[in-house]
Amino acid sequence: MKKGTLSQVMLSLLLILFLSNCTKSALDNNLMTHSNLKSDTKNIERKFNILNKTYIVPDDSTFWQVQLSKIIENNNWLERNNLQLISYEYLKDINSVEELTALKNSIGNLFPSYVDQNNFKIQEAPKFKNEFRPYLDTIISSTKSAISKKLSKHREVSYFKQGDLGAVRLKWSYNGNMIYTTCIVSREKGIIYDNFLYFICYKNTNVKRLGGIPSLLKMSEGGDIPDGGSPVSFTDDEGGMWENLFGMTVFECYIHVEVTGKAVVGAHSIQTKAITGHTYNANYNSAIGFSGEARVESISFKTGTNGHFQYAWGYCFKFAGSATLGWDGVSFSVPTGASEGHAGGSYVGPDALH
Can you give the residue range of the structural domain that contains 97? Predict the structure, then answer.
């Protein structure tokens, strides 16, 4: 090969390498420019629940965009209250604590207000916006150090981190009119807060039972208990888990009642049942901005073949205020304005044990 030809080949190879590096650099810069749309974290679980359905976020998709798209797909549930999420528009990155503070200050006064369980209306609530502001500052803190150790365990708690937060405008249709809300999103965690998405909630019917509640054995003598026999029991489990529109658990409660006894088969195959004891307990947890309560009370109890256990239970939760069950000594009542609540009870005799 001639010396001039070799030089030309070398120059061509160098030019190709240079152009390749320039192209890669341009692509990298372009990806950095649009980095607000993608989540690259490997530590956050990339799945969420919406209306009793679980969705997996693909690695090449944006967490919050997938969430909003699925909410739009499930508009039929919101339409029962004449509300629809129509579309969304990414507004900007939140690049400083000052921008985050300004954005929180600009969030509007429209909130859902529950008329009764599962039915709400959208209305202006400037008083609630002011009351809720401290909670909002907790949900999205200015710095990680400002979050207490206790609150840091909450899934809903976030903090300002450079390159993570962004603002999205949501377009809604309510009773035929167009309204807009401001949604704060995170590259890592998805949707963080919106007046509607945070407070509109539903019961997750896939959760059958919540555990982790210590039961207290309660016993009281008062009737004949036959010798021997096989164990029998009566169990009542109440409560459940409620989530908001982007899958965050806002309230969960578990009420457990168990009446124990034994059954003895006597002459002529006649079975005699006797109550020997009972346990009951309740537990609940609420997300930031929500309050709730779950209770179970013993009204009367007696052991033996003529024994019984009478009890009452209740649970409720709401946002914008305190949720407290009413109690008249015999039964519970759910307060007006609760997002969800139920009350009941039972009189359990020996024949109810199996």
Answer: 35-199
Residues 340 and 227 in one domain: yes
Count of structural domains, the chain: 2
* Pair (273, 241) in one structural domain: yes
Count of CB atoms within 10 A of residue 154's CB? 16
* Location of structure tokens 């208990």: 225
Which stretches of the chain are assigned E, i.e. beta strand?
Answer: 47-50, 53-56, 83-93, 110-116, 119-124, 140-141, 158-159, 165-174, 177-186, 190-193, 201-203, 216-218, 230-244, 249-265, 271-286, 290-302, 308-319, 326-327, 332-333, 340-348
- pTM of the full structure: 0.78
Is residue 119 located within the same domain as residue 248? Answer: no
Q: Are residues 76 and 134 in the same domain?
A: yes
Fill in the amino acid letter for 36. N
Domain finish residue from 132, 167, 199: 199
> Taking a C-beta distance cutoff of 8 angstroms, is the pair 84, 76 a contact?
no
pLDDT in tens, 45-86: 788 888 888 999 998 899 999 999 999 999 998 999 999 999
322: β partners: none
- CA–CA separation, 214 and 311 (whole Å): 18
Same domain, 187 and 50: yes
Question: By CB neighbour count within 10 A (0-12 exposed, 13-18 middle, 19+ buried), where does 313 fall?
Answer: buried
DSSP 323: -
In a domain, 4, yes or no: no
Q: Check whether residue 109 and residue 246 sit in a common domain.
A: no
Check residues 321 and 64 and name the one with the higher pLDDT: 64
Q: Cα–Cα distance between 139 and 152 in angstroms, integer?
A: 10
| pLDDT at residue 49 in the model | 87
Mark out the alpha helices in the chain (DSSP H runs).
3-33, 63-73, 75-78, 97-106, 126-139, 195-199
Find the Cα–Cα–Cα–Cα dihedral 31, 34, 35, 36, rounded to 10°: -170
**Closest to 303 (Cα-Cα) out of 242, 348, 255, 254:** 348
The pLDDT tens digits for 125-135 are 888 888 888 88
Alpha carbon distance 7, 15 (integer Å): 12
